[in-house]
Each structure stands twice: as structure tokens, then as C-alpha cells.
């Protein structure tokens, strides 16, 4: 909040300094346009209202659910109502998985109902519940090192706790167990795989997320306990008595029939180089447990609001601005894969892109991934953002975040905007990812940054590949 | 944390000041004994370990459940292991209620599963689910003012949101709707009563708690939504379209057969006036959804640890210290009622009492309820606590908190210790009331305060009635 206030009140002074030192970068006209857009975004509730609409009128929108189809209709209608010129969908196929019901209990030495969620793609318990002893592992490496005989007929439990960090890097250290833990455990004879949730909160919400079996290995149920329930299990294990757990799950495993997914794409057409597109990305799908306000309702709100703010300017941007609301990000960037496959012959027209898929914090860093000559130009834009607390990274290897990383691999230059992600994994993939968690002040600042970025990229004439 | 550190490091200096100004109050010997006990409590994990044991080995312990019976056995064994001389139970009868299963959905204009809990004593939905339109009320008074015709066939919804305050006084303003809202709504023809949870958090946990029907009114299902789900409902209502909700509940209502409950009482016998008892109270029962770490595992931990610390002193206290772990507090102080009925002829021997049933904060105030002469003496003890951040209230009307209030009404002098309760109603009566929420540093300080209080009351020779 403090930073926000300072940014607003000091804009006049600091932007004059910036102007004085970089008059050749952002000319006076561009500077005034960016100021106009920034002010519009900072004084508008539009991005929040879009998130409110999505989470209230659609809610959770997991691939394979009716609500996911409804979200596509919602997005098409919302883009049209916000002033996009062209709106279309691009359909493809995705595997289907149904969560079903899950009951997890501690059976011995004490009896407790435990809060848990099946991991995405997990199979269920078939005909009979599983009741088995827990084999306790510190982390995935310890599980990998276990002898096969020690897991036969047991439930493998991995206790690793994710660390809270501003850049969210604790996720990378923890998520491996979620993705591959069940496959490793199954190879060693385990009958189920249980882990401490990949999350930084200490509330009784389990964190779901995608997992994978190996093609040739046995498929065993895979689930995550809430952090307090993992604590309880570990306190029971400290008693040095056998600890047994019961699991009943009707999770479907990956189903044979695929479902149709759709990227929703909207454009605000450029006035001079309409074939050159600046892309803003977010993902429209969510997990099924919360309403997906943070992941990734915020991205939907920021990108759609950015185009609406730009549409109110006296003149159109020179290049086209394209918002891509990707499908099926949560189960492996499937919408982004389809987008790249479908547009591979015109990736050269993708001038630069940025995604928003990291929640609630205020942006503190702009990291470029572009040609060396373009770096000079993006630094001028970064200087414009400096009074809002944004620094430019010294590296030049950004490939785009989340879905947009696949476009980056296909050659699209990128800017990665980094928000403070300290609280992101408190809500990530939980029932608790709801509208009330949205930080409305940070959202306004971040919307202002994406709006001005899109305008700058579409009007500066920079070739970001050079 | 800061206050804690200061208290420890400044004890030497400040206690000398106290000693210099109040040499007649706490003599040197008493002062040294209190310091010894304070140090023991501050450097011990015992109260935490007791809570860990209760929540891990027993867990939730709602009246009428097997775990509640197990908690009585646990408490008897724990008291004996901690050095209590006499331990016994006093059984009585309580009404039984079973939560059953609850499913709540928004059906129109949007479809959502909602997080909700039945209120204690609520009936279920009998043979068929309820599907009805929501009638929206700001608060209980607005519901009371409604015309009967407006509620016929509808679900009454009360939106009142509890305020967060240090003294927890927002609870009193909000809880009326929980207790009597369903009775009011039923009289006006409503088919169900739904409210925003009485709680200060914004997590997807509903807060349960007891409700009452009027003897002569129709019994309708009563439930509370989590705060984020209440937000969602209210955002749907803002669309000015009819909002309908579906409720399926197998809650039992109050059952005809009663269940046996038991206060668990333990004493450390006084050396000189064993018939005079200083009472420390907490309640052993909890709601069924969390593990009751905060409500009231902390009270169990503090009071049991206090006696254990006292049992390690070179001499016994002159008066007896009695810990009463009350039964069935959550459904109307039923254990306390039985205690007062059973001990009414020897209440004069109850010298003074204090309860702990307000969670996690550090104590900042001592409020007396005693004879005017005794006030001078308790002020000396309050001065001893002053370096730990405790002020003495200017009033003298404390009757005891929670269960202990009934002993206060029956004539027992009281001290009420007030902790910072700002976060108490984040966890109160939710699934999220678990061990990890316990503030271990505050717990040590509060244990030190209760331990020194019990010692002071048992050894000062003060008649707190005079």
C-alpha cells in the first residue's frame, strides 16, 4: 500500500527525472500516453470486476467439466463486451480426469479423518479401500533411495515441506515429488502414494496438482495431505508405533475418451501493422476445488482490462494486441501446445509476449528475453516503470512465463514480469483460492504495468528480435 | 515475541523496582518462589506437549462421540502422570446431537458447491433436499422485522459479518443470529436458515456452534457458510435475479436419548488448608471439525502444566489447587452446571478461580472480581506481572470466564485474564483449529502467569471474599 501511494504521489517528480535522462527513449507523446493509460488502470476496478464476474458467474473451470465449457462462452462474451475487435476460439483435445470422492483416515495408533486431495490423473482405490502401514520418507530422493522390499504393501509418505520465498522458487524443489512420487513408489511395491501438500500455508487445505505415472508402471492412488494433517501424521509417526492409513477414492485415473478444450483469443487490431501481434497471456482453466480467482482469474482480469483501457485511447495502437486465454494449462500447457502447433508458420509476427500467472503480489522486476538492440529500448520502458518499484533484471534470457514459455521456445521475444510471490503458494490449487484473496491495490498497479507494456510494445516500433 | 524477550531480560531490573515499592505485598520468599515458577514455565514446553498429546492421541472430542469418552480417559491418565494427588471424574447427562452429512449448493443464477457447516442441534432435511429462493437480511434485527409472508417457502440468509477486535467483543454482536436465527426464521415460514459464519477469517472454513429452537416452533435446518462462500452468495444476490440454494443434510437434531459426560477433576493437595481450593478451569470437550487445539486444548495445556510446575517446588502450596476440565462447554456449559449443582454446599471453600478458554494471545490484562480488601492483595500480584505486559483492570466485577462464570455466580471470587483475542475467531469452531495454530511463545508466558497466579492464591493467605 505504501509503495503504491508513493508511486502515485512521486510520479510527477521522478518521471521528470526519467524524462531528463532518457528523452530519446520514450518521446513526450509516448510518455503522455503511458501516463494516461497508467492513470486509467490505477483508478479503475475493471480487472477486479472481471475476476469477480468469472469467479461468481462461472466459478471453478477444470478441464472436462461443464463449467470449463461455460468459461469459454463467458470469455468470448466478455471480450466482445470489452471492446475487442475480433474474438475466436481454437479447439483441441485433452485427456479427461474426474476427481471423484476421497476419504483418508489415520487408523492407528490414533483415529483421525484427514484433509486430503487426489492429485490430478490419480487413479482411485478400485473395489476395496486401501488400509496399509505408512513408510515415511524425508523427500523424493529418500524415496528413490529406498529398497523395493521396504515398500511392499505399504503406503509411501513423503514429508518434504515447501519453503516460502518471494520468487516462488520453493515450488520447484517440492513439485517433483508431486509429479513423479507415485511412479517411484509404485516401482518399489507401494500400494499408494501420500505427500505433504506443495504449499506454504498452514491451513487445512490440501493442494492438488497434476501427477504422472510411468507408462509401464503400476498405477497407485496419489494424494496430498493438508499441511496441518501432515503435521498430525508426522506427530503420530514420532510415537514409534506402526501408523496405518485408510484411503477410499473414486478418482478416475486418466480416461480413455478425450474432451474438447478451447483457447479463447481476442484482438484489438493495430492501425498500421495489424499483422504484427503483441501477445498478453493468461490461462482460463483452473482446478476444480477453489474458484480460481488467484490462479488464474487475476491473469484473465489483467489482460482483458489492459485491452479495454487501450481501447479507450484517442488512437489505436499501431500493432495488434492479442490476448490469449489458454486452455488446460493446469494439466500440462495443452492449450499453449496447440497454439504453437497451429501458429508455427506465423510466429515471426509475434512481436513480443507476456503472461500473468503468478497471483497477487506487486511487480518488482521486469526480465527481458530479446535481441541485444531491443534491450536498449525495453530499458527505457523499464525506466518508466521504475517509480512504481519495478527494476530491470540484468539477465536477458526470459522465455515467457507459464503458457507463454512455449511461444518463447518457438521464437517469440518475451518480457517476464515478476510479482512478489510470497503468498502465492498459500492458495495455489486449493479450495481457498477465492475472490476475497485478490489484493485489489496490487492488481491495479499490475494492470497499469501490463497495459502500458502492451501499448509501448505495440507503438514503439521496436523489433524485439534484434 | 519482542514483548516476551523484553520481559525475560528485564525481569531482574524491573522486579527489583517492584520489590522496592511493594515489599509488604509479596515478601521476599514469595517473590523468589514466583520467579522460580515463572522461569520453570517460560523454559518448558510442557503445556505445548500436553496440547500435542491431546490433539494427536485423541483429536476432536465432541459430546456424544467415542473420542469424547477417550478424552476423559486421556485426561485422568495425564493428570496422574503429571503429579496430581487426586484425580476423579464427575458424570452427568447431556443431550446428544450428530452432525451427519451436509451438502449446500447455489443452484441459480449460477451453480456452485458451497462450504458450510450445520449448527449444533440443527435438524436435517428429512426425506427430500430443500431447494428454495434466498431471502437476504442484513442482520438478525432485519430478520426479526421481516413480514412473515416474505419468508414463506424461502431460505432466510443473514449476512452480518463479525468484526475483529482485541477483546473479541465482535462475537457478542454476531452470535445472536447463530443461536436464535433459525427460530426467528421458522416463525416467519422459512424452510431453512443460513448465515455468514461467526468468524473473522477469510478462509473457506465454516464456523459451527450451538443454536436453539424455540420449544413451540417448527424446526428448520440451520447452517453457516464460510466467509468466502457468503461473499459469493452476496455477489450473486447483487445481480438482482432470484438466487436459489439447495440443501441436503442428515443432521440429527437433538436426540431423545442423552449421553454421559464427565468433568475430570485433579488436585494437588495443600499442606496447611487442604480443604480450601484454588480452581483453574478449562474445557475438555471440543467441536468435531478441528482437533480443538485452540478451543480449548490450550486451556487444558496451561492448567495441567501449572500444577506440574508447582509440584516440582520444594514445598507444597498451603491451599489445594484444583484443575477442573469441564465437560460439554460447547453445548451450554453443561459440565459447569453439574459442577455447581454438585458442589453447592462447599462453594465457600472455593477460594478463587480462573479459566482459560480464549486461545492464543499473550495476556495483557488481569481483571478481578473479589472483596475490596482482597483487591489490595491481588494488585500486588498484578504488579509482579506488570513486567510481562499485564495491566490490572480498574473494575472489580469479574465473575470468571466461560465455565468458571457459573462458579462465579455461585459465589467464587475470580480473576479473569485477558489475552489478545484478535485472531481467536479466525479458528474458533472450524476445521482449521489445529495444533500448528498454537503460539508457543505466548503459551509459555500465559502458562507462567497461570502458574504464578495459582501459587500466589494458594500461598498468600488472602481471603478473596473480603
From TrEMBL, chains A, B:
Domain (Peptidase M28) ranges = 263-449
**InterPro entries xrefs:** CPQ, Peptidase_M28
Pfam family, any one: Peptidase_M28
Q: Principal localization?
A: endoplasmic reticulum
UniProt keywords (A-Z) are: Carboxypeptidase, Endoplasmic reticulum, Glycoprotein, Golgi apparatus, Hydrolase, Lysosome, Metal-binding, Metalloprotease, Protease, Secreted, Signal, Zinc, Zymogen
Top-level taxon: Bacteria
Annotated signal sequence is 1-25
PROSITE patterns tied to this protein: PROKAR_LIPOPROTEIN
Entry's Gene3D superfamilies? 3.50.30.30, Zn peptidases
Q: Where in or outside the cell is it found?
A: Endoplasmic reticulum; Golgi apparatus; Lysosome; Secreted
PANTHER family the UniProt entry points to: CARBOXYPEPTIDASE Q, PROTEASE FAMILY M28 PLASMA GLUTAMATE CARBOXYPEPTIDASE-RELATED
Q: How does it assemble?
A: Homodimer. The monomeric form is inactive while the homodimer is active.
- Supply the name of the protein: Carboxypeptidase Q
Q: Which organism is it from?
A: Alteromonas ponticola
Amino acid at each position: 500500500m505504501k509503495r503504491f501511494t508513493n508511486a502515485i504521489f512521486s510520479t510527477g517528480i521522478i518521471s521528470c527525472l526519467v524524462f531528463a535522462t532518457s528523452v530519446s527513449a520514450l518521446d513526450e507523446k509516448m510518455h503522455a500516453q503511458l501516463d494516461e493509460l497508467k492513470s486509467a488502470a490505477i483508478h479503475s476496478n475493471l480487472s477486479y470486476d472481471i475476476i469477480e464476474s468469472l469467479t461468481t458467474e462461472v466459478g471453478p473451470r477444470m478441464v472436462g467439466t461443464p463449467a470449463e465449457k461455460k468459461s469459454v462462452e463467458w470469455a468470448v462474451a466478455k471480450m466482445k463486451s470489452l471492446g475487442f475487435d475480433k474474438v475466436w476460439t481454437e479447439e483441441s483435445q485433452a485427456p479427461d480426469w474426474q476427481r471423484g470422492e476421497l476419504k483418508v483416515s489415520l487408523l492407528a495408533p490414533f483415529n483421525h479423518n484427514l484433509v486430503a486431495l487426489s492429485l490430478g490423473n490419480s487413479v482411485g482405490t478400485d473395489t476395496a479401500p486401501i488400509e496399509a502401514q505408512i513408510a515415511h520418507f524425508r523427500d523424493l530422493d529418500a524415496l528413490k533411495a529406498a529398497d523395493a522390499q521396504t515398500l511392499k504393501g505399504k503406503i509411501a509418505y513423503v514429508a518434504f515441506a515447501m519453503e516460502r520465498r518471494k520468487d516462488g522458487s520453493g515450488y520447484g524443489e517440492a513439485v517433483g515429488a508431486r509429479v513423479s512420487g507415485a511412479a517411484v513408489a509404485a516401482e518399489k511395491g507401494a500400494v499408494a502414494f501420500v505427500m505433504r501438500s506443495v504449499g506454504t500455508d498452514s491451513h487445512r487445505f490440501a493442494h492438488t496438482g497434476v501427477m504422472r505415472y510411468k507408462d509401464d508402471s503400476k498405477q497407485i492412488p496419489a494424494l496430498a495431505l493438508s499441511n496441518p494433517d501432515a503435521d498430525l501424521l508426522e506427530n503420530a509417526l514420532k510415537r514409534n508405533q506402526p501408523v496405518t492409513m485408510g484411503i477410499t477414492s473414486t478418482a478416475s485415473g486418466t480416461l480413455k475418451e478425450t474432451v474438447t478444450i478451447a483457447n479463447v483469443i481476442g484482438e484489438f487490431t493495430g492501425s498500421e501493422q495489424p499483422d504484427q501481434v503483441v501477445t498478453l497471456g493468461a490461462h482460463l482453466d483452473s482446478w476444480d476445488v477453489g474458484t480460481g480467482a488467484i490462479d488464474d482469474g487475476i491473469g484473465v482480469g489483467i489482460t482483458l482490462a489492459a485491452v479495454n483501457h487501450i481501447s479507450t485511447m484517442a488512437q489505436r495502437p499501431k500493432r495488434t494486441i492479442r490476448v490469449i486465454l489458454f486452455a488446460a494449462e493446469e494439466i500440462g500447457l495443452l492449450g499453449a501446445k496447440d497454439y504453437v502447433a497451429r501458429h508455427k508458420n506465423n510466429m515471426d509476427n509475434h512481436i513480443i509476449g507476456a503472461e500473468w500467472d503468478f497471483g497477487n503480489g506487486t511487480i518488482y522486476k521486469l526480465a527481458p528475453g530479446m535481441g541485444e538492440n531491443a534491450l536498449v529500448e525495453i530499458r527505457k520502458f523499464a525506466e518508466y516503470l521504475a517509480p512504481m518499484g519495478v527494476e530491470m533484471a540484468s539477465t536477458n534470457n526470459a522465455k515467457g512465463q507459464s503458457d507463454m514459455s512455449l511461444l518463447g521456445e518457438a521464437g517469440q521475444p518475451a518480457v517476464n514480469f515478476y510479482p512478489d510471490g510470497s503468498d502465492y503458494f498459500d492458495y495455489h490449487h486449493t479450495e481457498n483460492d477465492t475472490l476475497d484473496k485478490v489484493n485489489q491495490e496490487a492488481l491495479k498497479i499490475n494492470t497499469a504495468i501490463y497495459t502500458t507494456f502492451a501499448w509501448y510494445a505495440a507503438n514503439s516500433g521496436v523489433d524485439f528480435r534484434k
